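Consider the tokenized backbone below.
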């Protein structure tokens, strides 16, 4: 006689730490509801964990199947559901993956989820990874000249969600603390770039920061150096913004390489205007130029390229006590006579008074004719 095998379903034991299969049903108040263990009970992933999972692009759409762990049977969700967690299982997988990456010295990509004044945080299903300020690549480092902490924090906030390539440099297994470095991820690129770099060659860098003493520029995001303000142009730099802003490409010439130190210059990519000026001008010439800036002892006028000439207060031809800025305006085009030309000292002296005297001498002669 044939026998019929009875279907036997094993009823899962609802016990803290047990793992069961769950199917996402819908979002509920303060979490996501799941049908667990083939409908044996309902579980809920709490909203705090849900936000963390969604931030890590974890799929919680309806009918998604996932393995969950029963968290605590003595505490229930406000609607009576058992509290379950997927993060605790994911954290174990993350930790295994972290140890493998550390062992292999692997470069990988992360997206920061938080920022503080010390650097950036990456939350991987509740495990915190940290990128210190000092380990950020040049292009991402929040360079703030006056050390304004609020400004630094604002710049770090801009990096949240950005893809950053990193290496693991420190792991603390007891505290589950992982320190990452963007600089270390670029180490090989930096070494190769420095090895191939040549004095005299021009490279396209990117402005990564600016200060009162020059531009910080980076190449391939891994080598950063300073173009000193004296190497930006042959003339005076009154407003550094006129020559570029953060993020702009900048062609820069390597003028020195020694013991890992790089000397860079923008101005040396073009001829020195002081080799041209003595051929273009001589003492007594009258030139027309734009008023560039005021100083306590006179005004500077643009003469050639970025080279300025000084009209001393005594050479302005104005009454003593007169307000200079009422007589001459910034940006105004004025005529003046060359009274000093010293290429060695790189100085040009100009005079409006001398030009007025020349005109006065010429006037009687014209009248006699």
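A designed sequence for it:
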């Amino acid at each position: 006689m044939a026998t019929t095998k009875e279907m036997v379903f094993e009823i899962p034991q609802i016990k803290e730490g047990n793992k069961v299969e769950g199917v996402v049903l819908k979002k509920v108040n303060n979490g996501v509801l799941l049908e667990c263990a083939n409908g044996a009970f309902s579980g809920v992933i709490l909203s705090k964990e849900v936000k963390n999972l969604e931030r890590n692009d974890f799929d919680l759409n309806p009918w998604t199947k996932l393995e969950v762990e029963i968290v605590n049977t003595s505490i229930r969700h406000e609607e009576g559901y058992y509290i379950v967690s997927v993060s605790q299982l994911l954290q174990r997988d993350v930790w295994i993956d972290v140890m493998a990456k550390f062992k292999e010295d692997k470069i990988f990509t992360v997206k920061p989820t938080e920022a503080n004044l010390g650097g950036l945080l990456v939350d991987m299903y509740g495990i915190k990874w940290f990128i210190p300020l000092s380990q950020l690549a040049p292009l991402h480092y929040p360079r703030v000249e006056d050390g304004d902490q609020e400004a630094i924090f604002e710049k770090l906030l801009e990096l949240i969600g950005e893809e950053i390539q990193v290496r693991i440099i420190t792991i603390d297994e007891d505290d589950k603390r992982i320190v990452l470095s963007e600089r270390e991820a670029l180490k090989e690129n930096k070494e190769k770039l420095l090895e191939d770099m040549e004095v005299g060659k021009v490279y396209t860098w990117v402005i990564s920061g600016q200060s009162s003493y020059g531009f910080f520029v980076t190449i391939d995001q891994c080598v950063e150096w300073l173009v000193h303000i004296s190497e930006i142009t042959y003339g005076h730099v009154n407003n550094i913004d006129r020559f570029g802003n953060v993020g702009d490409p900048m062609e820069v010439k390597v003028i020195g390489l020694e013991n890992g130190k790089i000397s860079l210059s923008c101005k040396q990519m073009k001829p020195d205007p002081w080799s041209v000026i003595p051929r273009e001008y001589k003492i007594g010439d009258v030139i027309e130029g734009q008023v560039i800036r005021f100083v306590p002892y006179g005004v500077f006028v643009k003469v050639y390229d970025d080279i300025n000439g000084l009209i001393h207060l005594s050479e302005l031809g104005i009454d003593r006590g007169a307000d200079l800025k009422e007589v001459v305006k910034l940006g105004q085009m004025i005529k003046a006579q060359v009274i000093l030309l010293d290429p060695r000292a790189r100085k040009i002296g100009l005079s409006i008074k001398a030009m007025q005297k020349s005109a006065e001498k010429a006037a009687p002669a014209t009248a006699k004719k």
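The longest strand covers residues 65-76.
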